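User: Show me a protein chain along with its predicted structure.
Assistant: Here is one chain, sequence first, then structure tokens.
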Amino acid sequence: MMPLQDSPIGMRDKFSSFDVACIVNELSEMIGARMRKAYQPHYEQVVLKLNRKGLPSTDLVIVRGKRIYTSQRDRPMPSKPSQFAMVIRKHLNNSRLIEVNQFGFDRVIELVFEKGPGRIKIVIELFRDGNILLIDNQGKIIQPLTHAKYSTRSLKKGLEYNLPPEAFNPREMQRNDLEYLLKNSEHDLIRTLAVRASFGALYGSIACANANLDENIVSNSMTTEQIDLLEESIKKMTSELEEQNNVKVWMKNNDSLEKWINSDDIEEREDLISQIEETAPINVPYLDLQFSSKVESLSSIFDIVYGMYDAAAFIRREEEKLIESGNDEGERKAKLERRSEQQKSAIDKFLHRAAINQEIGKSIQENWSHVNSILEQFNQAIVKESWQSVEKKVGEIPWIGKITPSKRTIVVYLPDEEGEPATSVTLEVGKSVHQNAQRYFEDARIQKNKASGAKIALENTEISKSREEKKSAKNTAAGKLKFLKRNKKFWFEKYRWGMLSNGSLFIGGRDAKGNDTIVKKHLNSTDLYFHADLHGAPSCSLKLNDGLEIVKINNEKIPEGVVSLKIIQGLNKEVEDARDLSKEIHQEAAQMAVCWSRAWGSGGSAATAFYARPSQVSKTTESGESLGRGSFVVRGKRNWHKDISLELAIGIGLINGVPLPIVGTAETISGIFPRWGKILPSKEKKEIIANKISKATGLSQDDILSCLPPGGCTLENYGLIIDY
């Protein structure tokens, strides 16, 4: 089985204070529900199974430090509960949920349960790395998910639980509160709102947009009039937040919106998640309202976007345990390589579904008599009575959840180790136990077949490595890397790409189609759009969270001067928006954007570039006409970088074990790679330079050509070519 990768979704996966306020309101509908079971399918996730009288069982999914939402998905659960899950069960099984609170306007949720005469709380902290804590009636910590120590408080078993320092609360905002927040911040307005006020990047941008204020204005320099505008904007946002059932989803275009509206199946909507621009319980003024649609709840949209990934948490953890065990080193290495190589591909979805369905099919077989008994009794009931009549009666039966007469299906719960309802499965009433199990197995087989091409490619790679082992040793001794034939490249190799000094990936289109794809698929709300000030220049994206990280590998086969790196998706966790990166990083990105444009072969020595927010980039002109492929309109303020020198540098490294040339500015590359060279404009054909580098390093000539700027160039060697 291939490893289940990190969620590839571009939409934000972490809650802000506004999201918490909305979800607390939604969870209030669960008051009165009984807590039946607690599970911990993954160290990052806790699931509480809640039952409301006469309604299907609901899973409350808590992902540490990120999100919380309700779901009724089929999800495999561990057969043995974790220690943390056991503690929750001991104190809260069969307890009743009586309160759902948000502390102030912070990212902290309190669930109050009543059991007998006492009350016990679950406190969920959704900031930093997050935490989930069980609190007794006296306010002491019974058990935290993870022990933590901060400057103002400690979260350990037996200690009194103390709330984090009170955050800015816009719902109870007084004028002096806002002035204090702004006057004591030397950061720009968007950072002050996003971080210090816990608005997050999205709601910080909304506040600025509503007030028609520049996000980059320094907070403590704001005038009285500007503070007035911001105050009115925040009041408007909190007023909208109080309106119930006002959650909207914004799609990228009218076509995706229509498909979303006309979809009546969760899997159909899952296929559209790449087209989601944003979702929020208040209006987003810089997004087109005509591309929006109301959704049932914030919970429902997060279940659509992240539900399948979160439902596979148990399977993902089992795979991680296998990798951590160190068994079968060759297979472990192959899994890690595949995990890296197939990021942001649709294959994840297929593997998730296959694994879930395989596990559910096995569970049905293992609980044959239980499932058969329920099916027989249900079929006998609908023979005597109507579906509607039976549906009303089964609400009190703990083993049966949702009933769908139109599809002739029922949700059945399988027993856990204590004989209590646990894993949920959807059964077709007209089929036997065997047929229902086979239905899941068949679907798992179909999903696996869709990923077969990738598996074959990786097997061929391993065969190639084995055959060339001797040659690789010889080349390593000579300072050469082994050329690796690959059937599949990294996702960013489809585009122009390079590395910034902080590790961030910087990508740009190679043609009009590539420009479109960069903007539509690889320009998230936290990224930045870069473009040289020249017609026909590539559209570029500075990726905030996607990047490269140096890893230490003790391998004598790797030549000296070759740096090993790995692809990561959690880069710059402390930064909410790429705009908050240093000016030096922005300057590096601007320089690469210029060098990838026709300025390179123009004969000049410098050029200009700018960056803008993703929301400023549009395919539609002011007249409403749609632009051609590769063309975009940028509205609003542009941030300019002038007199940029035309030069790049190339280093030699291993990315997830794959030898590749890595491009960046001279300052970046020389600081990371001992073997590097400077690339300058020239009339010399770049094919000649690529051939020299390939012969001396063992790198693929095609890979080298792919990373060189457009037009002729020359090389200043600084160890890249030994004995040049």
